[in-house]
Amino acid sequence: MMKSDRREFLNLSGKYILGAGLAPLFSALISGCKTMEAVTKIGTSIAVSQGVIDESQADSINKSASAVARSFQDITPEQEYYIGRTVAATITAKYRPYNKPQANMFLNVLGKALAQASELPETFGSYHFLILNSDEINAFAAPGGLIFVTRGMLRCCKHEDAAAAVLAHEIGHVQLKHGLQAIKKSRITSALTTLAIEGTKSFGQKELAQLTETFEDSISDITSTLVNNGYSRSFELEADMAAVKILKNVGYDPNGLVDMLNVMKKRLKPGRLDFAKTHPPPAVRIAALRKHIGRYTKVKTAGPRQPRFMAVFRNI
Amino acid sequence: MITRFKTMLMMFVLFSLTAFCAYATGEKMMSVQVRQGQIRSTPSFLGRIVVNLSYGDRVQVREEKGSWIRVSVPGSRAGGWIHASALTTKKIVIRAGTKDVSLAASADELALAGKGFNKQVEQEFKVKNPKIDFTWVDRMEKIVVTPNQIKRFLKKGGLSAGGGGR
Predict the structure, then answer these.
(1) CB contact under 8 A, A250 and B107
(2) If I label B6, which of A162, A171, B25, B155 is the partner at 20 to 30 A Cα–Cα?
(3) Where is the Peptidase M48 domain (chain A) (predicted)?
(4) Is A33–B22 a contact, with Cβ atoms under 8 angstroms apart?
């Protein structure tokens, strides 16, 4: 390589590295103001105007920033609501709801009081709770706050603090958007691409078909995680930690969760399609909780909560 | 020499942009991102509801206290507290046209109401999956719990209002 060529090569490489490196760096610095993608575009356009990088180089930087920016966080609460409704409908197609208005109302008042003490008290369609008529020990949270608890799970709750703990754990999953994170990233990118090429108020048939297919796949990602595979152990423990915080905010004893897990430990049968399959073993969760809330102390059931709880759930 | 000047100029422009953004966030407008938002007299879910807001309504931020934001409604004398989770910094476009769609695809300041996974997509899903029945979902969404019911429930149970994650 000639000396002048080498100098030119080094000069060009330096410019490219400078342009590619500085744009995201400055983008990250001001990420509180704009998204990574939008600011990267500003950064690269300045770099282009200054002759530091050319148009195609800028385009490639913008494309990679765009791919980084697209994730479950781009799903608006309104879209999360529609995802949640269909996940919920899929659950009620599999499990028959328990049609007892008094018990469902109690669960809704309790659940709403807890949701208001969470870090995500407001969702697009608000929180709603329903009991499922199943002996299986299970509970599900659809994105956006549609929460289901089986009769089998409620039978593991000997007092209101334990039932509160079950709901608070599920609210934790909603708050932490674990359901949305079960959707494969490629589907979100695909949905956003469809959205980007669609410009009128109503979708064209082709776009609607594409979007519905992505929607179906996303629902399937979530329901197979909720019903068959379970979340990761870290998500479950995160939801337990969120539950402890919610319970403490309202004044419930977080040891209620330990009590429920101890009953569950005795009742879970290995190999069944319920909490035994989709959650870490109760002993693991109890050990993690102890680190967080300290030594177990017995939950007080002498107060006013026990009679009202037993009045509704004695024969669940 | 010229290259160094260009680099310094670029860094100066980007630094100015950073400063401008910091300044711009000082006076904030936000949008209601839930179907129904409530402004309350105090920063608590037990506070009296002063005004109801709809999806996409804009509010001006006056003060922040934990997870609660004191806002005023432009063009009216209404104001009070709303939980931060009901608001977004994005501008929500209710009737999005072609221009908005391309803007929203490239930037993060816009959210398009009724776009993406929406009622129309749900309808299409129902046609393709007739065995998935939404009756119970609609029924559970109709279960309404009033603020007074929660207030009584907490009081009788010797509990306190969580205050939205405080």
Answers:
(1) no
(2) B25
(3) 107-291
(4) yes
